[in-house]
Amino acid sequence: DQAPVVTIDGPSGSGKGTIAKLVADRLGFALLDSGALYRLTALAALNAGADLDDAEKVARIAANLDIRFAIADAEVSAILDGVDVSQDIRMERVSMAASKVAAIPEVRDALLQRQRDFRTAPGLVADGRDMGTTVFPDAPVKIFLTASAEERARRRHAQLQGRGVSVSLRDLLEDIRARDDRDMNRATSPLAPAEDAVVLDSTEIDIQGVLQRVLDLVQQRI
Ligand code: C5P
Question: What domains, with CATH codes, occur in the chain?
Fold first, then answer.
């Protein structure tokens, strides 16, 4: 029997990363931040000077990634080739590149098994775009978390300002729209709720409210 999976999909800035962490913590489940795998692929490709349109080359990079996730002080860091790149993979340049490499079917194939390997007892919380549709279609609990693009841009803006990074809200909104557009319109595993997903909008419900809804579903179904 396979360990249960809670999938949390949605666009960037919907709060799914935060919710996934809280749920995993509450349940004592493992956590898969699948976006980090695409970000690591993108960073490795940029570092290698690869042309991001070269599907074969980028897929080879994805298949051969030497990565590790380390946990310290409840924070997960991403280690690429032995180097902590947790900060680097969050840069706007890498975010854009990640959404580009994520549109390559061969890259998605190369990362599929790696993602499924995170499934382990007593359970897994998986956050991404296609966790409920493609990677864990048999998950007993599937959440699709959304929020308006404006709200997501505002959150990202506040987050960056908190870190002393100054960017314009308009540029962020444009970036978010471009990424949404690419994520929703790609041919392979586009961003969309699974048929059996529960759709929640974090513009209307706060983090605690969303967390409670997810925990209720887990209680009913796992
Ligand atoms: O979630 P995060 O913003 O870290 O994801 C980075 C990029 O990786 C997204 O813009 C998306 O294009 C891609 N991604 C994906 N499928 C996933 C997770 C992320 O295509 N399951």
Answer: 5-213 (3.40.50.300)
